[in-house]
Amino acid sequence: MRKTDRYYVEHANSLWMIYKTVSFWKVVKNFIFIQLGRYTPFLGIKNWLYRIFLRMNVGDRTAFALMVMPDIMFPEKISVGSNSVIGYNTTILAHEYLIKEYRIGEVLIGDEVMIGANTTILPGVTIGDGAIISSATLVNQDVPPGAFAGGNPMRVIYTKEEMEERMNGKKD
């Protein structure tokens, strides 16, 4: 189960409440720095922009590929460990606006995590250290450390122990 805070709304769908949940000017500022980060080829500058202007927790030597889209409304709820790779065009959401409610949750990505291209990570998810997420995955639940996961809906394909066996060439 994803760890999110739920806020119920009445009348119109929750997206109509957007600027009651987050400042318009915060979204404008975040949009500008996310767009700069999405296109800059310099990883150090990208991480600096995300740390300073978006207040994201980004570890040393982490690499955000071209076109990665951090949450525009609550990027400060995203934490990525050291030496991780976030693949091309990945979206990391810390919010979701639904008809009768909206949800906000932290996204915690561990150290030495590999996230394949075109992946979407939903709010309230934790991805453990050393996990590998295949391309085009919808990460809708926690991923254990060292696991290999993928698909839509996502499932754990190999556990850490099975991955270690495969890497060491052992067979059943």
Automatic annotation (TrEMBL):
InterPro entries reported in the protein's UniProt record: Hexapep, Trans_hexapeptide_repeat, Trimer_LpxA-like_sf
Record Pfam families: Hexapep
Taxonomic source organism: Lentibacillus amyloliquefaciens
Protein name: Acetyltransferase
Gene3D superfamilies in UniProt: Hexapeptide repeat proteins (2.160.10.10)
Superkingdom of origin organism: Bacteria
Single GO MF descriptor: transferase activity
Sorted UniProt keywords: Transferase
